[in-house]
Design a protein that fits this description.
- This protein is α/β, with parallel strands linked by helices.
- A hairpin with a 4-residue loop joins β8 and β9.
- The radius of gyration is 22 Å and the shape is globular.
- It starts with a helix and ends with a strand.
């Protein structure tokens, strides 16, 4: 028991070592030919002793192989290359820096119910991102990587072909709508997000619309997707987003709410909720809570589909 606890206390060392390798773009450098310790030292002027310790850790944990003093990426290490379009480079970067600092102040959130991120940085998480372009880019790239994997089955589970148009509201860099557009080329697919986000989107055959979902959502689509949007906000702000979705839909229009709310994963949801509390003063709601929010706005519940082990799709109609 004591040994388990002692290991737990330093688990973050492992993530931060991998995170540092990503920050240094070490996996990309090895892939591109800097595949010996000597080459890495000569090309980057890094400290030899520290680099050797990092490489030993990465080899012991199966991120790297070394044969005859030549380094090579394993399958796991290859996923951490920035140049791997199917990788998790930005997801790895996402949980360090500001996220880590906010979590180090979790006790403040427990005592007060307020965001420790806002306490430390003096503004809300999303306002902070909007004022820091590199952090905004990294965040949305990370969310794209998660969504790309999590939403793979989305167009198989939902027949979006029955709609003339589908708009992903707050869809970031467009992972979800990209998957839908590829499966249903005859559906008009639209992506709506802040102008600062839309400027970073590079997707073909998808109409990109800049705006603020707290102000107004354009009346241009007969169906709307909210994918992991509502969990970022408290009830007041969540209802404002839903109200604007309601007004943007025609009578009979469909709202797809995709959220983390599988009650079979209570432990993981507890940690996810702590993260939302720390970062945004929100939490991972239950299915019942999401339905109640939508009912207050005037939506009628239609059905639901399990997306994956953690996420559910709640489907609502505008009368």
């Amino acid at each position: 028991m004591k040994n388990q606890l002692k290991s737990l206390f330093t688990e973050h060392w492992k993530y931060l070592a991998v995170n540092a390798a990503c920050e240094l773009k070490l996996f990309d450098k090895i892939f591109d030919g800097q595949n010996t310790t000597e080459k890495l030292i000569i090309n980057n002027n890094w400290n030899l002793r520290a680099l050797v310790h990092l490489l030993v850790f990465l080899k012991d944990n199966e991120y790297l192989n070394e044969i005859d003093f030549t380094l090579a990426l394993t399958e796991k290490g290859n996923l951490l290359r920035e140049g791997n379009t199917d990788g998790l480079f930005y997801a790895c970067l996402n949980w360090s820096a500001e996220h880590l600092t906010a979590w180090q102040n979790l006790d403040f959130t427990i005592r007060s119910g307020k965001s420790s991120f806002e306490k430390v940085y003096g503004q809300s998480f999303f306002n902070y991102l909007n004022e820091h372009p590199s952090e905004l880019f990294n965040y949305h790239k990370a969310m794209f990587e998660y969504a790309r994997d999590d939403y793979k089955q989305l167009p198989e589970l939902i027949n979006f072909g029955k709609h003339k148009s589908v708009m992903d509201v707050g869809g970031g860099y467009g992972a979800a709508i990209k998957i839908i557009a590829e499966k249903y080329p005859n559906v008009n697919c639209l992506l709506f997000d802040l102008d600062k986000v839309i400027q970073g989107v590079n997707l073909d055959k998808i109409e990109k619309i800049a705006g603020d979902f707290f102000v107004q959502i354009p009346y241009v689509s007969e169906s709307i997707i909210l994918s992991r949007i509502l969990h970022d906000w408290d009830n007041t702000k969540a209802k404002q987003i839903l109200k604007n979705c309601f007004e943007a839909l025609p009578s009979g229009g469909t709202l797809y709410v995709i959220e983390n709310c599988n009650t079979n994963s209570e432990t993981e949801l507890a940690l996810l909720s702590l993260n939302m509390s720390v970062m945004c003063e929100s939490h991972e709601r239950t299915e019942k809570e999401y339905k109640e929010l939508c009912f207050e706005i005037g939506f009628e519940y239609s059905s639901q589909v399990i997306l994956n082990q953690l996420q559910i799709i709640l489907i609502f109609q505008k009368p």
